[in-house]
Amino acid sequence: MQLKYHMVTIEDLVPENHFLRKLEAALDLSFVYEETAHLYSRRYGRAPIDPVVMVKYLLLVFLYGIPSERQIEVRCADSNAFRWYLGIDLDERVPDHSTISQLRRRKPAFRKVFRRLFEEVVRQCVEKGLVSGRLAVTDSTHVKANASRASKQEVDALEEVGNYWERLDAYEEEGLEELKRQTGQRRAKRTKQVKKDKRRSHKKVSSTDPESGYMKRPGKPSGFYYLSHQTTDPDHGIITAVTVTPGDVHDSRPYLEQLEYVHKSVVPLQAAAADSAYDFPLAHRALEELGIDFFVVPQPAHDRTKAELKRDAFTYNEQRDVYLCPNGKELRRKRLYRSGSGLFWEYWAEKKDCGSCPLRQKCLNETDKAGARKLQDSYFKTVVQEHFSRRWEPDYREALKQRQIWCEGTFAAQKWGHNLTRLLRRGLEAAEDHCLLSAAALNLKRMIKHSV
């Protein structure tokens, strides 16, 4: 068999309009050297693989949906375009897949590069006019953890103080001052954290990946997962923020902090849209204070009162700020109640009125120790009602439509082509790296598409 000699270079083998050529021209990775300078010695040891090459190596995994680092080594070895993008010539060996594993094991601080990479891509999208802040849509998707069901065990659940609790503390103090102005009395400032609901005192964890969370939601698969919470700008589908939590964390927990980050550090927001999981009273108040319109699907109301006379039987008098019971008696605002689910005004009837009321059997339970009927209103009721008064307006419905299109569509694209289905590594930090790279890969494709 006679062989031919070809006088070509790797530059000749990559088409001029190839995506990776456009990516190389669009994305400046020089910041990687700044982020990793402290991780490498200039005097000792053998020369390391260029950190920019390592970032590109991983970026290819998520740009092309390659399911493992072993396979990226194979793909880079036989792909001229991949070699060209990495700067590896035809006669040079591509990095071994174990180099990635050793990098993560020996230099855990390297993972800061992935957050910086995502932020740099978002910054470029803002500069190119692909992110307007006109609307921010938010949702979460589950990503399967590398944990077996057989590793499940039950442990005590510890309540974390977090940003949500700190906000409620501030509003509780505000409400107590308001109550003092009305009644002349107030209780002492809270010094202990509100106890967690006893029904959630235990949770299931995995012994192989204890940082994952056991997810059990209607219509979702059950098992150990992480949640990728993403905020997207629907103008061109650019993901502006990514937060990763265990699978048993409620969607509302990272929501306000994520939106505030986008509003203050990425682009000022005019409006935000979300599904019913994000309809919690505190969100309405916090976004109102930021000047952000809030379009959210209302949660269905559940009246868990065991008495025959439900809340609908009571009439609210806005001028006097009292409720009138079916017997014409008043329920006055008495105190500010704090629970694990929020902050509430309590309206109480007089015990003497309930004691002689002909409707007592229908209004109170036999086990009711207080002997008087009470009702609860969210502390943030006014702003919630103001937002929902617009729910049938065209712009409100259009915002919810945009949320469905861009959140669900973006997650589908990431799961289909950018490795957002399952994790290969374990731990919350590894999950965050994975989700950030997936989001950065999709952003790069959309940025290049709309920049051409």
Automatic annotation (TrEMBL):
TM helices/strands, residue ranges: none
InterPro entries cross-referenced by the UniProt entry: IS1182_transpos, Tnp_DDE_dom, Transposase_InsH_N
Disordered: annotated segments: 179-220
Domain Transposase DDE: 324-448
Domain Transposase InsH N-terminal intervals: 9-106
Biased composition regions of type Basic residues, renumbered to the chain: 183-205
Pfam families reported for this sequence: DDE_Tnp_1_6, DUF772
Protein name as catalogued: DDE transposase
